[in-house]
Amino acid sequence: MVETTQKEVPKNSFLRLLKAVFWSFFGVRRHCDLESDASLNPLHLIAAGVIGTALFIVVLLVVRAVVR
Predict the structure, then answer these.
(1) Domain spans of the chain?
(2) Separation CA 45–CA 23 (nearest Å)
């Protein structure tokens, strides 16, 4: 028997992408999760990281405006 090895993208890949970006902001990542993240699209990771950074900056600016 010959088994084909194709990468199957799980249905929850968007949630996995968000989880990977969220935990990377803290610098905490489990080794098994890191290995499973190899199937994520690098361009999607970069885009999610940029969007996450922008949201973080907006939250900081709002908090700064409220505290003043």
Answers:
(1) 13-67
(2) 12
